[in-house]
Amino acid sequence: MSLDPALLARLGTLQVRARAVVEGVLAGLHRSPHHGQSVEFAEHKEYAPGDEIKHIDWRAYAKSDRYTVKRFEMESNLRAVLVVDGSGSMGFGRGVMTKLDYAKICAGALAVLLARQGDQVALMIAGAPDPRGEKLPAGVRSFLPFGSSNAHVQELLRQLDETKSEGATLLAPALDFAAEKAGRRALFIVLSDFLDAAGDEKASLAALARIRSRRHDVLALQTMDREELEFPFDDPTRFLSMEADDGPVTGIDAQPRQIRDSYLEELARFLAKVKSELGRADVEQQLFPTDAPPDRALLTLLRRRERSS
């Protein structure tokens, strides 16, 4: 059963939420009815809990409607960099969780999944550096190097749990820094709304394209709140900027019914541009509304990744 975000919000710590999502993903991959052996699948075995998800053969699944694992596939361990946007706009969300809450749960679940497979995982929070922490380049709030041990995952979840949304979008320099740290080929999973206070997302999209041009694999998981996607406001409303730096908070007063059509048109252009630019750079992108069950969203993503491999 998929985990509703409202239920996840009541589960307590990020560690508990992330592991609950992982169990939901694994349950979605497992089929209990036993199917007989077939000559067609002589080099496969039926999926069972504990098997590595990356070895599931989705082409075989499309033909047989059952999950099988490639016995012959011996891949080297993956190296993955989780990049989470910690800017102010990620703090939006009037439902059970903000965009950042949702991104943290997805990133935490991915870290647990990858580490279970023995893959190396790094974490970078994009945003203004913490003046109390180590000296880091502009745009990098924190960086946790690669690791896969239980202690490493616990530290990764702790850093995610403590991440707050604040400041302007500084994704581009953070991505360039992460690419330098990754070194050899890696998988970059970027969780962001890709919204920029200045209305210019070109720098972030260009940085993703540069990473892809270095032969890294890149997944862009665009996290958006349902109210941003549908603009359900009716009464006179004051809309505030969530990415103001140390200066005064700026905002505008508006009649939502008068601006709804133009807002939705502009949003459609923005989403289309993100998808188009990333598609041109051969970067896979998926939109994750924050009211979608994270386990179902991640399961869909895993299936898409295997089908395209």
Structure characteristics:
309 residues; alpha/beta; Rossmann fold; six-stranded mixed sheet; two-stranded antiparallel ribbon; 10 helices; 10 strands; 41% helix; globular
User: What is the total domain count?
Assistant: 2
Low-confidence stretches: 30-43, 71-75
Radius of gyration: 20 Å
Q: What is the approximate shape?
A: globular
Enumerate how many helices there are, as a single number: 10
The CATH topology of the largest domain turns out to be: Rossmann fold
The CATH first-level class of the largest domain comes to: Alpha Beta
Biggest sheet architecture: 6 strands, mixed
**How is the largest sheet built, in terms of strand order?**
5-4-3-6-7-10
Strand element count: 10
Strand % is 15-25%
CATH architecture of the largest domain: 3-Layer(aba) Sandwich
Assign a percent range to the helix content.
40-55%
Assigned CATH superfamily of the largest domain:
von Willebrand factor, type A domain
Element order: H for helix, E for strand: HHEHEEHEEHHEHEHEEHEH
Given the helix and strand composition, which structural class is it? alpha/beta
From the N-terminal CA to the C-terminal CA, the straight-line distance is: 27 Å
Protein model, in words:
By secondary structure, this protein is α/β, with parallel strands linked by helices. The protein has two domains: 5-70, no CATH class; 79-308, 3-Layer(aba) Sandwich (Rossmann fold). 41% of the residues lie in helices and 18% in strands. Strands 5-4-3-6-7-10 form a six-stranded mixed sheet, with helices on both faces. The protein has a two-stranded antiparallel sheet with strand order 1-2. Strands 8-9 form a two-stranded antiparallel ribbon. β3 (79-85), α4 (99-116) and β4 form a beta-alpha-beta unit. α2 (14-29) packs across α4 (99-116). The longest helix is centred in the C-terminal third of the chain and has 25 residues, at 256-280. It is globular and about 55 Å long. The relative contact order is 0.15.
